[in-house]
Amino acid sequence: MSSLTRTTAWQALAGHHAHVVQTSLPQRFAADPERFSKFSLRACGILLDYSKNHLDHDAMSLLLALAQQAQLPAWIEKMFVGEPVNSSENRPALHSALRNRSDAPVMVAGRDVMPDVRRVLAQMRQFTTALRSGEWRGYSGKRITDVVNIGIGGSHMGPSMVCAALEPYASEPRVHFVSNVDGAHLATTLKTLNPETTLFIVSSKSFTTAETMANAHSARDWLLSTTKNPDHIARHFVAVSCNPQAVAHFGIAAENRFEFWDWVGGRYSLWSAIGLPIAVSIGMDHFEAMLDGAYEMDEHFRHTPLAQNMPVILGLLSVWYINFFDAQSFALLPYDQSLRLFADHIQQVSMESCGKSISRDGESVDYATEAVIWGGAGTNGQHSFYQLLHQGSPFIPADFIAALETHYPTGLHHAQLLANFIAQPEALMMGRVEEGLPAHQHFVGNRPSNAILFQKVTPRSLGALVALYEHKTYVQSVIWNINAFDQWGVELGKELAQVILSQLTAAGSEASAALPDRAGDTPPSPQHDSSTSALLEVCRAALIRP
Ligand code: F6P
Q1: CB 449 within 8 A of CB 400
Q2: Residue 265: phi, psi to the nearest 5?
Q3: What is the reported pTM?
Q4: Is-contact 173 144, C-beta < 8 A?
Q5: Which sequence spans correspond to the domains of the chain?
Q6: Is ligand 1 within 6 A of the CB of residue 218?
Q7: Listed residue (233, 236, 235) closest to 251, CA to CA
Q8: Which protein residue has the closest C-alpha to ligand 1 atom 3?
Q9: Which pLDDT tens digit goes with each residue over 113-151?
Q10: Is the CATH number of domain 108-287 3.40.50.2000?
Q11: 154 CA to middle of ligand 1, Å?
Q12: Catalytic annotation on 352?
């Protein structure tokens, strides 16, 4: 038994679960007209209604006791003051410093990092102002009309989600995103673009990520196929990276590198210079308004008692369902077209942070950690996967997210959208079982959800919303005693892909022709299983030129 499952709070929650499930959600509402006011809270312009959950006062008290037993308040403070909460890499996780809008210093290894943070924000402002005003021109003197961000994972998802969400604030240049190493992604993006008026942002913390480097090299070839002059790269490529040597080696000028630091995790980096495509799209004032919103949520998380603390409540609910209801999946359902990529981003934040089964102490855990996080824009999902949410067998708690106002004069549309946002959680909870109705038309109901509501998708509200989910994830990691800030689980597949690539690109294949310095390499020949060997042979044969 782990020290977590031995705690009195954990044991009590396990016992209390059996009691809680004896009362259905509709029965709880019928018994207590004050339920909404007891189980809802407002912070940073966000209303969280968590009343439609399998909770009573005692369950909430026990969850809060569990948080105290895990020393959550101390862990929150450790993160904000720059202690090395990323223990396997001995680093702080200071995304909060990137949006620290106060004058307070943030110390890392005895040094205040805030002057560096402000210096890079100023560099971003100068660059984006020059680009958006047309002062920064391409090699032939034409204005830059299109910016292509090349990056993957955290160097892609957050910025692309925010650019989609804040599209009403966008103006020229247009921003595009290329992440997939599938050449189709770059090719289809470049199809309508002109090298003379296109600028690339190569976003990579490490500047070694295979997909990003392949796309960046092909983009450089595309530019050089028109200009033929390598000196022109300086007007068309900038980099965001922690690796100055690799950036220089690629041929990007030192003054065109935007720095960030190893204490910023990839999936928490949209607040850093990794957010450069956001600032290009919406301008630096709006980018900083997004930081303001996140800072407000940081302050709420850091200083509010646990019982009124929104990220804490959301994190504890996830723990409650994952560990005591055996939930293996959570849906994020934004009723706002602009938030259509929100679940994708939070999927990386949650699953890369908490998808671990070794504790901070190096022990295998004997309890479940993160579930599968997925979702997509309502109302589209209602005509697709909601069937399973309403009548399927898995237990899937859902977060319904909506804004009261829209940027578009959409007449009845917004009322329809909000009607669905309200109706779906009610249908999930109330269900419908009527005498005379055939069984396939029954809805058993009793399915839990949260509702998250705010005024409008603005830079500020979006900043607060994203920070809310980041901190929720941290809360879960603290309870589970795992490190939320490393991602060793992605390494093995990357290493094997490198080995297999050298086998696929051995002399004679089409791919080897595209990588001249590899042609003729003798590939290492690890012992593959029969399935892998067969697949390798089929792919290798397809890559060999006739
Ligand atoms: O492979 C996972 C990962 O390391 C993510 O954590 C990260 O966001 C992504 O790859 C991209 O890494 P980089 O910014 O170094 O290219």
Answers
A1: yes
A2: -75, 145
A3: 0.96
A4: yes
A5: 8-69+304-486, 108-287, 490-544
A6: no
A7: 233
A8: 153
A9: 999 999 999 999 999 999 999 999 999 999 999 999 999
A10: no
A11: 6
A12: yes
